[in-house]
Design brief:
By secondary structure, the protein is α/β, with parallel strands linked by helices. It contains eight helices and seven strands, in the order βαβαβαβαβαβαααβ. Helices cover about 45% and strands about 15% of the residues. Helix 1 packs parallel to helix 2 (about 45-55), helix 1 crosses helix 8 and helix 6 crosses helix 7. It binds nicotinamide-adenine-dinucleotide. This is Oxidoreductase.
Length: about 270
């Protein structure tokens, strides 16, 4: 593995939430490979330690912080700790998220609805606000929120997730306007149908079990139906996400803010 001591993002400090998860870790490794130092935030302590070990291999300074994004106080104190440890925050990848149950709206469990909104919307807001306050004080920063194509077209059986990701697109647009005067850009990414792996399998199985007219009850057929709805006729690989995030964080995107970029094989 190559270590980078003077890359494109050398001297930059990035905060990543959901950093122990698949996309968060992939982005952390990529930003570290470009020279950024990284604060990794996640709920899951053990997975977070493993992620930190992996990201350190790129030669960057990496610190793990156990933080529940639904707890505003925890987010605020963790952000203060990150600034105390690293001195500033240049980049935020606001990415922690949860899919919740798959069921038609008339059967959708209220508990799941509330949980998904708490994590995906309130959590993203807490992190965005805490980090934005620091960036406003610094008069610079770049933020990428993880939305989803479920926040562009409401998918069947995903009332909570769809609503939460539409909210992320709205939050991105409003934050981009509120923070533009402070030299802070805010954009979003919208992945869809990323695989292979547990997330892909889980989505396929849950849609099959939801038993609606939109998908077969046979998971193998569901997988074919999903891929058939993608113009590029394949699912996306997780490795196709980090480069888009680093582009949006970089000066190459210096005139882009409030944008939601699909990473979705042609689904618009
Ligand atoms: N994987 C996909 O196909 C896909 C597609 C579109 C959007 N997304 C979005 O990408 C983001 C990352 O998802 P992923 O696929 O890496 O999933 P993942 O489950 O691998 O990672 C999510 C991470 O978020 C963390 N997390 C959950 N609740 C938290 C909380 N309250 N506080 C702090 N951390 C918390 C989890 O511990 C986990 O490590 C999510 O916002 C998800 O909605 C994923």
């Amino acid at each position: 593995m190559t270590t980078h001591t003077s890359g494109q993002f050398s001297g930059k400090i990035a905060v990543i939430t959901g950093a122990a998860g698949t996309i968060g870790l992939a982005v952390a490794e990529h930003l570290a490979s470009l020279g950024a130092d990284i604060a990794l935030l996640d709920l899951q302590k053990d997975k977070l330690e493993d992620a930190a070990t992996k990201v350190r291999q790129y030669g960057s300074t990496v610190r793990p912080y156990v933080c529940d994004v639904t707890d505003a106080q925890c987010v605020n104190s963790t952000t203060e700790q990150v600034v105390s440890d690293f001195g500033k925050i240049d980049f935020l990848f606001n990415n922690a998220g949860f899919q919740g149950a798959f069921a038609p709206i008339q059967d959708y469990p209220e508990e799941d609805f509330n949980r998904v909104i708490q994590i995906n919307v309130c959590g993203a807001f807490h992190v965005l606000q805490a980090v934005a306050r620091q960036m406003v004080a610094q008069k610079s920063g770049a933020i990428v929120n993880t939305a989803s194509m479920a926040g562009v077209q409401g998918p069947p059986n995903m009332a909570a997730y769809g609503a939460s990701k539409f909210a992320i697109v709205g939050l991105t647009q409003t934050a981009s306007k509120d923070l533009a005067p402070h030299n802070i850009r805010v954009n979003a990414i919208s992945p869809a149908f990323m695989g292979p792996g547990p997330m892909w399998d889980m989505q396929v199985e849950k849609q099959a079990k939801a038993k609606t007219q939109y998908f077969s009850t046979d998971p193998e057929t569901v997988a074919k139906q999903m891929i058939g709805s993608v113009p590029m006729r394949r699912y996306g690989n997780i490795s196709e996400i980090p480069g888009v995030v680093s582009f949006l964080l970089s000066d190459a995107a210096s005139y882009m803010t409030g944008v939601n970029l699909p990473i979705a094989g042609g689904i618009l």
